[in-house]
Structure formats: structure tokens, C-alpha cells
Design brief:
about 35% helix; about 160 residues; single chain; alpha+beta; 4 helices
Length: about 160
């Protein structure tokens, strides 16, 4: 992940959320964030991924993230998040998904980023990188096949 930021998120009047969301959008890179919600017991860790970066990762990742949360593996019963109203932070609105735990970050009706758990963000980034590195577009593949054909021809005449 590119950037590590710690955010103390209090009440929506506080513009810290607006600043960190604006930073992720401006930088265009994933931002690791630690939320320490007012009155909360534990810090919540997430990765804020700009929408374009997430779209790229999901394009190249061959499968969906396996739905097992490392933090919840020790718990006997997995808690399902309650449905709640979208949370507003300045010009941004957060929509928490009940399935998968992602939170969509919307500004003026457009999703600009998503909050993912760190495991999912890391997995998506790695999977997309691995697939993308093994992929050749049709022109590149044809040129490589032509190169290999010439190598085999030149190698067979020398023997």
C-alpha cells in the first residue's frame, strides 16, 4: 500500500474524513486508514481504494476475494452489520454494504472510492498484479510468437 494515515474520526461535523477521502482521490493510490471512532473500544483498520484503482484490480483479479475475515476466524458467530443510514462527511457520503463489509464512498452521486478490509485490498492488489504480469495483448503475443519462430529457425540451421 502506498500511504499510511491514522485518522481519529469523531462526529460527521469533523472534517477529518473529508480530508482523508480527498487525499485518496487526489493521490490516486490506496490509503491505509485507522479509524478510532468516538466511544469505540477498538480501532478499525481499512484501506481506502480510489474507484479507478479498484476497477483495475477487479478487472485483473481472476476470482472474487474468499469471504473469510481473518479477524473473525476465532469468533464462534460472525456478526452481520446492521443496516444504517448513509453517513455524510462533508461532500462525501458513505454507504456500508451489509455483504462483504465494503463501504462505498460517494460524492455528487458518483462512487469515488471504497473502504475495504486490509486483507481484501492486499489480496486484490496481489492477484491483479500476478494475472496482469502474465498477460500479453494480441499484438504483443503475435510479436513474441514471431520472435520465437525466428529463434527456432536460426537455432536449427546452426546445428
Amino acid at each position: 500500500m502506498g500511504i499510511q494515515i491514522d485518522v481519529v474520526a469523531a462526529y460527521p461535523i469533523n472534517d477529518e474524513m473529508e480530508r482523508v477521502l480527498g487525499l485518496a482521490e487526489a493521490v490516486g493510490e490506496p490509503v491505509a486508514v485507522t479509524f478510532m471512532w468516538e466511544g469505540g473500544e477498538e480501532a478499525e483498520r481499512a484501506v481506502l481504494v480510489p474507484a479507478a484503482t479498484l476497477a483495475l484490480w477487479e478487472h485483473w483479479a481472476p476470482t472474487a476475494y474468499p469471504m473469510r475475515d481473518a479477524e473473525n476466524e476465532n469468533r464462534a458467530v460472525t456478526e452481520e452489520p446492521e443496516l444504517s443510514h448513509p453517513a455524510r462527511f462533508g461532500p462525501f457520503t458513505l454507504f456500508r454494504r451489509r455483504v462483504g463489509g465494503r463501504t462505498a464512498v460517494v460524492r455528487q452521486g458518483v462512487v469515488v472510492a471504497e473502504l475495504l478490509n486490509p486483507g481484501e485490498a492486499h489480496w486484490l492488489e496481489e492477484e491483479s498484479r500476478n494475472v496482469r504480469q502474465g498477460f500479453m495483448d494480441p499484438k504483443q503475443k503475435a510479436a513474441f510468437e514471431e520472435f520465437l519462430a525466428r529463434q527456432a529457425t536460426s537455432g536449427s540451421t546452426e546445428q
